[in-house]
Amino acid sequence: MSKFKKIVIFGASQGIGKALALEYARTGSSLVLLSRNEKETGAIALEISTESCKCYSKKCDVTLLDDVREGLAFAANSLGSIDLVIINSGVGGPNWMQSFSSEQFKQTFAVNTFGIAHVLECVIPIMKKQGYGTIAGITSLADVRGYGGSSSYSASKAAGSILLEAARVELKKDNIRVITVRPGFVKTAMTDKNEFKMPLLMQPDKAARIIRKGIESGRSIVQFPFPIVMATRLIKFLPNRIFDWAMNLARPKK
């Protein structure tokens, strides 16, 4: 059984978000599922809702502040209170400098970074009023360097990680826990677009179990798998000439 009984998941229509919904439903939690794909989240909610553990859904675009505010108001009204909010909405895909688009860069940040910012703005007052709460934001182990072909994704995830860290430090005094979740490669529609080999590629259900257990353990950062975590720590401090050389070997030529 999960110690979190009333949970809101943003980006719950597929991939890690859907797997987390199924995982928490299995442990007896009641849920509100939010995503742009109203049809899919509605189907998931219908599938996992029971008499004792209700599951509700609502259309919500994290890039729109009013949508996020309405989604959380709906969640608070449906559940009565909110124990845990998981911010999972994310976009990605290859983007190379020879065809770099600032518009694509903005769109990636709108979801991956401003999505987190919008949820924080709307959920902090709710959790302060109720006197407790946990916020878990899913970023990525790709947040440590500017990887060729993934500049928008890596930059947006780095900004998200820093934002969550600052929130963690400030909100501790308000009895609000903030957790940064940094997965490695998880097989989703987003990673299917990647043009490079993804070591230790993990299925979403396994990732969801690790995330749930990590959140419940009380850790401030949940990151996995261990070999990739260690590799990124090394990569972070590589001299630029070695990093550049390694990236040229690892990425397909464009």
Précis, in short:
This protein has 254 residues and is of the alpha/beta class. 48% of the residues lie in helices and 15% in strands.
Write a structural description.
The chain is an alpha/beta fold and 254 residues long. Helix content is 48%, strand content 15%. It has nine helices and seven strands. It has helices at residues 15-26, 38-48, 65-79, 102-112, 114-130, 151-171, 204-217, 226-236, 240-250; strands spanning 6-10, 30-35, 55-59, 84-87, 133-138, 176-183, 221-224. It has a seven-stranded parallel beta sheet, sandwiched between helices. Helix 7 (204-217) links the parallel strand 6 (176-183) and strand 7. Helix 1 crosses helix 7. The longest helix has 21 residues, at 151-171. It is globular, with a radius of gyration of 18 Å. The termini are far apart. The relative contact order is 0.13.
SSE order, one letter for each helix or strand: EHEHEHEHHEHEHEHH
Distance between the termini: 49 Å
The backbone outline, from C-alpha atoms, is globular
Q: Which segments are poorly predicted (pLDDT under 50) over 5 or more consecutive residues? A: none
Bin the helical content.
40-55%
Per DSSP E runs of 2 or more residues, the count of β-strands stands at: 7
Strand content: 5-15%
The largest sheet is:
7 strands, parallel
Radius of gyration: 18 Å
**Average residue pLDDT:** 94
- Largest sheet strand order: 3-2-1-4-5-6-7
Class of secondary structure makeup? alpha/beta
Helix tally? 9
